[in-house]
Amino acid sequence: MLGPAAAGLLLLGVHFGAAAQQGDPKRGLYLSKAAGCVGCHTEARDNAQPYAGGRALKTPFGTFFGPNITPHPQAGIGRWSEQDFIRALREGRRPDGAHYFPAFPYPSFTKINDQDLRDLWAYLRSVPQSNRASQPHQLRFPFGWRWLVWFWKLLFFKPGPFAADSAKSAVVNRGSYLVNALGHCGECHTPRNFLGGPKGSRYLAGAKLAEGAGAPNLTPARLKKKDDAEVKDFLQTGMTPDGDVAAEAMGEVVRNTTSQLTPQDLDAVVAYLRSLPPLPDEPK
Fold it and tell me: Which residues on adjacent β-strands are paired with residue 270?
């Protein structure tokens, strides 16, 4: 028999009853925060309209720009169906069938369960429209050829929703879902090879990012010097016990995502990270 905490976690999103079909925009708002959607889809300037696109992401392959995902019928995704949205996140495909570049973190979002996808869709349908046109990516030759993504997917993409590990507790499974599906933490904190594919053996062990920045090791090898309260406090405030503050990119993640999680979900994230195999930092 499940205890109150485990039952609450299941209700928050790991499993749903068969009756749950329609999207809930209020719940979708929480999920959008857990997924950090506003960060990638909002221009980095004062008073930018949320979800109107324009955020630049610099990579070794060129610069990607987050698209407009407001319900505007021309500039945004207002003409999409719910199935178009689910296909985009689950399969990494546009409504016309073309592949999305994996700068869009569908390798993680594919794990989002069906009801959460419906709730996210319902929320995005409710946000104010923007007529801001999505900005074309600026990619080095030949990385702008979308058909090449087909080969990348063969090597590095496994579509399908999150599957709980029966050997782990409900709390750890909830944390795994938050970290690996919604939070897509591995997209930044796992090093990549020359093709941009994640190094599975170095999962969450830290990675070099564009322009000399870095994402730290999240495994117990790095976290062992901090207790759970310190880790939770950092995820809520962006400050360490020594008074250091998170770097700009992680600071935004704290503001938009981790500080918005419920205490139960923060506990689950920490529990999952503690359960990982300890790995040394990625060599510099």
Answer: none
Q: Is the separation of the CB atoms in 94 and 88 below 8 Å?
A: yes
Range(s) within the chain of domains with CATH label 1.10.760: 21-161, 162-284
Which alpha helices (DSSP H) does the chain contain, by range? 4-9, 25-34, 37-40, 82-91, 106-109, 114-124, 149-156, 170-177, 186-189, 220-223, 228-237, 248-256, 263-275
Answer whether residue 97 shows pLDDT above 90: yes
**Average pLDDT in the chain:** 90
CA 206/CA 186 separation, integer angstroms: 9
What is the distance between the alpha carbons of residues 245 and 242, in angstroms, rounded to a whole number? 9
Which fold does the domain 21-161 belong to in CATH?
A: Cytochrome Bc1 Complex; Chain D, domain 2 (1.10.760)
Q: What is the mean pLDDT of residues 9-28?
A: 64
Per-residue pLDDT, 226: 82
Q: How far apart are CA 271 and CA 153, in angstroms?
A: 31
Q: Could you tell me which CATH number the domain at 162-284 has?
A: 1.10.760
Residue 254 CA to residue 234 CA, distance in Å, equals 8
| SS3 state of residue 196 | coil
- pTM of the predicted structure, to 2 decimals: 0.89
- Tell me the Ramachandran region of residue 262: left when phi exceeds 0, alpha when psi lies from -120 to 50, beta otherwise: beta
Q: What is the pLDDT of residues 163-190, one digit of tens each?
A: 999 999 999 999 999 999 999 999 999 9
* Among the ranges given (81-90, 101-110, 243-252), the one the predictor scored with the smallest mean pLDDT: 243-252
Nearest to 200 by CA among 209, 190, 187: 190
